[in-house]
């Protein structure tokens, strides 16, 4: 079983002095995770170059730094997001000697070379998203990203992924309101998700309902993906958005009204599940109401083929609302 670990640290980058802060936070997380001295050296270079590139070229730039875990493996992931000038062909700049600003161009090349895995997506006049990992964990095929309401330190959203008996389950929840009490509800949902038995989405939500009874409650959804069978089994309570994106087509999955933690009766029977066809290569996207539903991957040529965290970060940047907690989880 693998569950995503996402103790997110968001760092704004407004000027060159912030690059050192990105490096110090990243190395501190790497030290706590137990990375070797050699990997910590690589991490320092990657973090410093990401911070420096944002300071030089970005508008509204920021970096997410977090430990990443997958089974017994550990690493550090950095996700840089900006609304800068963007690039028409971002990947060509990720090689030493290329530059978008007349410099030596070693920044992106060093990031790509020193990273365990690396991904970048950019559009002219829209900005850039760059993701890199250092350590034993690559960029995963299922990944999410979250951000608290502006001014809050605690995010009331949470998400996770686990694999049981060959089935991948995704869970995303949104604690009612925002701030610490919403965070308590969201973390209770995460704990409930991790400890739930090998059941389908409806029974998992019933388990979460029991775990959240002493919290303010949450809205939540669970999607179970079976790519061999070409199917998604889904159950949702409240206004979590769930979408299957297949090329130019987009299909929503239905949730029912209610609050997890306040459902009564035999919820193991009453939480409804729905089955949806999952075409080969389709994406599954879950997000809280901290993102507007008016996003369309057709506006982002080639994005669906990028890493899951790159898709998630791009949607959060462009569809996220700053006046609410926001989270998005993507399975590619």
Summarize the SSE layout with pairings.
Blueprint: E1 9-13, H1 17-33, H2 37-57, E2 61-70, E3 73-82, H3 106-114, E4 117-123, E5 127-135, E6 142-147, E7 157-164, E8 167-175, H4 180-195, H5 201-211, E9 218-226, E10 231-237, E11 241-246, E12 249-252, H6 267-270, E13 274-277, E14 283-287, H7 308-319, E15 326-331
Main beta sheet = 5 strands, antiparallel
Order of H and E elements: EHHEEHEEEEEHHEEEEHEEHE
Name of the CATH architecture of the largest domain: 4-Layer Sandwich
Number of domains: 2
Q: Kindly state the mean pLDDT as a whole number?
A: 91
> What is the CATH topology assignment of the largest domain?
Phosphatase 2c, domain 1
Overall geometric form: globular
The main sheet orders its strands as 1-2-3-5-4
How much is the radius of gyration in Å? 20 Å
Count the beta strands.
15
The CATH C-level name of the largest domain is: Alpha Beta
* CATH level-four homologous superfamily name of the largest domain: PPM-type phosphatase domain
Task: Compute the separation of the termini in Å.
Answer: 18 Å
Helix content: 25-40%
* Uncertain ranges: 99-105
Structural class call reads alpha+beta
What is the count of DSSP helices, taking H or I runs of 4+ residues?
A: 7
How would you describe this structure in keywords?
Phosphatase 2c, domain 1, five-stranded antiparallel beta sheet, 332 residues, 7 helices, Heat Shock Protein 90, 2 domains, 32% strand
């Amino acid at each position: 079983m693998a569950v995503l670990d996402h103790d997110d640290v968001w760092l704004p980058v407004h000027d060159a002095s912030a690059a050192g802060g990105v490096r110090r936070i990243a190395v501190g997380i790497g030290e706590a995770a137990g990375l070797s001295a050699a990997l910590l050296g690589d991490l320092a270079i990657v973090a410093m170059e990401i911070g420096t590139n944002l300071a030089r070229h970005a508008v509204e730039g920021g970096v997410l730094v977090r430990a990443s875990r997958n089974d017994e493996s550990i690493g550090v992931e950095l996700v840089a997001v900006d609304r800068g000038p963007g690039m028409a062909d971002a990947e060509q700049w990720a090689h030493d000697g290329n530059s978008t600003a007349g410099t030596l161009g070693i920044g992106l090349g060093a990031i790509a070379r020193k990273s365990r895995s690396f991904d970048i997506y950019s559009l002219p006049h829209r900005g850039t998203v760059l993701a890199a990992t250092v350590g034993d964990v690559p960029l995963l095929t299922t990944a999410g990203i979250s951000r608290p309401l502006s001014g809050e330190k605690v995010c009331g959203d949470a998400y996770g992924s686990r694999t049981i008996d060959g089935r991948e389950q995704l869970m995303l929840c949104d604690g009612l309101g925002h701030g610490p009490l919403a965070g308590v509800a969201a973390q209770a949902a995460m704990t409930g998700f991790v400890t739930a038995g090998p059941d389908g989405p409806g029974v998992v939500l019933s388990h979460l309902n029991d775990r959240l009874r002493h919290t303010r409650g949450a809205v939540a959804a669970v999607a179970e993906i079976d790519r061999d069978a070409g199917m998604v089994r889904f159950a949702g309570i409240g206004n979590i958005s769930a979408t299957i994106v297949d090329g130019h087509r987009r299909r929503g999955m239905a949730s029912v009204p209610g609050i997890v933690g306040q459902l009564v009766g035999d919820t193991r029977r009453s939480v409804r599940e729905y089955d949806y066809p999952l075409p080969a290569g389709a994406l599954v996207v879950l997000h809280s109401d901290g993102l507007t539903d008016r996003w369309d991957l057709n506006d982002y040529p080639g994005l669906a083929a990028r890493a899951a965290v790159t898709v998630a970060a791009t949607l959060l940047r462009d569809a996220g609302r700053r006046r609410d907690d926001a989270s998005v989880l993507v399975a590619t």
